[in-house]
Amino acid sequence: METRNDPGYFTAAKNVVMLAALDEILIEARKKGVEIMLLKGAALIASGVFKPGERDFCDLDLLVREPDYDRCEEMLSSLGYQRSLGAQDEFARGPSGPAGLAAAVDLHHQVFQFAPVLVEYPGLIWESSASLSFGSEKVRVPSPEWLVLTAIANSMLHDGCLSSRAIHDVSKIAAVLPLDWGRVLDLSARLRLNVLLQAALANLPLSGLPEIKLSARESIVEGLFLAAAAQRAPNKRLQFLLPPALDLSNLKGRIFPDQDFFKARGLKGTWAERIRRPLHLAQSFLNSYTLNRGKRHG
Q1: Under a CB-based contact definition with an 8 Å cutoff, are residues 82 and 91 in contact?
Q2: What mean pLDDT is predicted for residues 73-92?
């Protein structure tokens, strides 16, 4: 029997709090006519990839269509959620349920932050999604192909690595759901994620995986993505380099974020703060580079 000191107890308790919060959110969303799609951990549990308690997740990743974002934010506020300081799209509500755990929501209107082509196809992920029953409500979940691509892309583009969790998630998706790798490749090509996916495929413990022919430009930056895919822990240098390597338009957003970035962190976005941002990134990059170089020659 699991006790409060067992990791399994904490995972199960956290799942109970999160899934109860999700049920409450879905009821309110139906009343307001807002359609919600689950992403990441909650989507994997709703899709049957994991059973409740098997896979921990620290928040509910919810995707809504951009016109519904403000209404959904107001709905969360009415349910007692407050925007978390230091994050643009994260909301939290006070501790409740077993072990006094807090419910948290990460609200999205784009599935990837660093895939600019999605601006051209904002409804792409919705087209192949499925509607599932959750309690007395309905919720949408991505197709198996989208689940695989989001698990890989979010890990590599946000953390600069292919985490052990992402590898485990993809392996379970492939084992449990009717995954079509051909569709994964088609989707990857459409979203211009081929270089990222190819690097990940080389590091997945799965057989019969397809190979991707990269363009000349993709081949130039392939080494960066292979380096990230070989990492299991977050890497600050690669975390900064991968998004602009994928698409140069990401560089401006990384160095000069918009006003919402500063607002979420309790800052005014003054010129001094805007100048401090690229200087801080440059210092972090140099520190990371020096540390990594020391490890290679140590």
Answers
A1: yes
A2: 88
Is the pLDDT at 257 greater than 80? The verdict is no
Average pLDDT over residues 46-65: 91
Contacts of 11 (CB under 8 A, 6+ apart): 53, 54, 55, 56
Q: What is the pLDDT of residues 161-193, one digit of tens each?
A: 999 999 999 999 999 999 999 999 999 999 999
Question: How far apart are alpha carbons 10 and 62 in whole angstroms?
Answer: 22
Alpha helix (H) ranges present in 112-269? 124-127, 144-159, 164-176, 181-190, 194-201, 216-229, 236-246, 249-255, 259-264
Q: Sketch out the chain's domains with CATH numbers.
A: 1-142 (3.30.460), 143-249 (no CATH), 256-289 (no CATH)
Residue 228, C-beta contacts closer than 8 angstroms, at least 6 positions apart: 156, 160, 161, 162, 199, 235, 238, 242
Q: Are 36 and 139 in contact (CB under 8 A)?
A: yes
92, 81 contact by CB (below 8 A): yes
